[in-house]
Design a protein that fits this description.
By secondary structure, this protein is of the alpha/beta class. It has three domains: 78 residues, no CATH class; 206 residues, Rossmann fold (3-Layer(aba) Sandwich), CATH 3.40.50.150; 84 residues, no CATH class. It has twelve helices and eleven strands. The chain starts with 25 loop residues before the first helix and ends with a helix. The N terminus is likely disordered.
Length: 421
């Protein structure tokens, strides 16, 4: 390795530790994307900003030295060798296909498709805490707001699959055809725009079950019309997939939309059949005693009981729920009653001294919330998935995420179709 005045091999690795901050620059994202894609031809989309990022850091570290582009490039190449040492989920060594991860959250799609030997070549996510979790687990910072043209400009060409768990928004289509232009102002429009520009071989979209009936079915009809007619993709009827049928004890129904570019000649597609319905709550519970902070106070337990009694007196089914160990959890969600509808009984607590401010005492019935790790398991995330954020953010992130096994089973069917052509 050629050295100038900077000893490349002794560069302090901490110099390139990146914190996810807002407002963001695209340079840190480009830097990490370049490190991940230096071998596959995608690096050209990220190299300019990656070099600029490295040069800025070196200038700051060595203000009295002349930092040339050559020095910056050597430093960049050196850093590639150190990439996989601390990343729990590195990309496969010999990937079979490439995909992009839009509205990436904490990387559920990425884990699923990497398990199938896929290589992620671009990712975007706007939430800064989700970005922190994503970086900790994949060694890569997602680009930001996908609605911005600058963010879209970093998306490479010639990837195989576009993945997007896009948020559902209402379309105003009254009296109109419900085509591509009618989706402007919605996040689906940005997905459609990328599909139109990049022409991936396949698309894999995920959304809440309610999308099927949203706005009396008009929203889904518009989406399918855009994909089939405007963008010219073969799109079979979307299907509701339940996570509990794919190895996790969670009753979580989501709508999956799959499509293939018509020139590939793919004219049929079957969603995966249920693989494993045997998982129960006991399979994902913590093996050791958990912190007292997850146990409800006596005051809160009584509040929940009173709340449910009021609703039951009105004929409503709303209220907290304690899931038996041989049962199936309700869908985890990021807000509202998400945690209270998935309480568990755990009598192993030995220290009842509160570690947080609570009203009343810690209940002696063993009623507690699930831990973030248990929520991660309900979504099919491996135990080596790093949880580096607060509990509040972790619940939000896993509640917003996807069930990895259901995504992987469907993605496997997609890849099978692509490989047979």
């Amino acid at each position: 390795m050629i050295k100038e005045r900077i000893d490349i091999e002794n560069i302090d690795g901490q110099l390139f530790e990146i914190k996810v901050v807002e407002p963001e620059s695209s340079k840190p994202a480009s830097f990490t994307h370049y490190l991940h894609n230096h071998k596959n031809g995608v690096s050209q989309f990220y190299k300019k900003d990656a070099l600029a990022f490295v040069k800025e850091r070196l200038v700051k570290k060595y203000p009295n030295e002349q930092i040339t582009n050559k020095v910056a490039e050597e430093a960049l190449q050196y850093l590639i060798f150190d990439l996989k040492k601390s990343v729990p989920f590195p990309a496969p060594e010999k990937p079979k296909f490439k995909f992009i991860d839009l509205f990436a959250g904490i990387g559920g799609f990425r884990i699923a498709l990497q398990n199938l030997n896929g290589k992620c070549v671009f990712t975007s996510e706007w939430d800064k805490y989700s970005k922190q979790t994503y970086k900790a687990n994949f060694g890569e910072i997602p680009f930001g707001d996908i609605t911005k043209p600058k963010t879209k400009s970093y998306i490479p060409d010639n990837f195989d699959v576009l993945c997007a768990g896009f948020p559902c928004q209402a379309f105003s289509i009254a009296g109109r055809r419900g085509g591509f232009e009618d989706t402007r102002g919605t996040l689906f429009f940005d997905v459609a725009e990328i599909i139109k520009e990049k022409q991936p071989k396949a698309i894999f979209l995920e959304n809440v079950k309610g999308l099927r009936n949203h706005d009396k079915g008009k929203t889904l009809a518009t989406i399918l019309n855009v994909l089939r007619q405007d963008l010219n993709y073969y799109v079979p009827e979307p299907q509701i997939i339940n996570a509990k049928e794919f190895g996790v004890p969670q009753n979580r129904e989501r709508i999956f939309i799959v499509g293939f570019r018509k020139d590939l000649g793919i004219t049929d597609f079957k969603y995966p059949e249920p693989k494993d319905k045997t998982a129960v709550l006991d399979d994902i519970l913590e093996e050791q005693e958990v912190s007292v902070k997850y146990y409800l106070s006596t005051t809160y337990v009584q509040t929940l009981r009173n709340h449910r009694a009021r609703h039951e007196s009105k004929g409503n089914g709303f209220g907290y729920e304690i899931i038996p160990n041989d049962g199936i959890a309700n869908a985890v969600v990021c807000g509202g009653m998400g945690r209270e509808r998935n309480l568990v009984l755990d009598d192993r607590l030995t220290n009842f001294i509160p570690v947080t401010n609570i009203s009343g005492e810690v209940n002696r019935e063993g009623i507690r919330k699930m831990t973030p790790r248990e929520w991660a398991r309900l979504q099919g995330f491996p135990d080596n998935f790093k949880i580096i954020v607060s509990d509040a953010q972790a619940y939000k992130q896993f509640g917003n995420s996807i069930a990895v096994p259901a995504i992987q089973a469907t993605a496997e069917k997609i890849i099978e179709k692509l490989n047979c052509k």
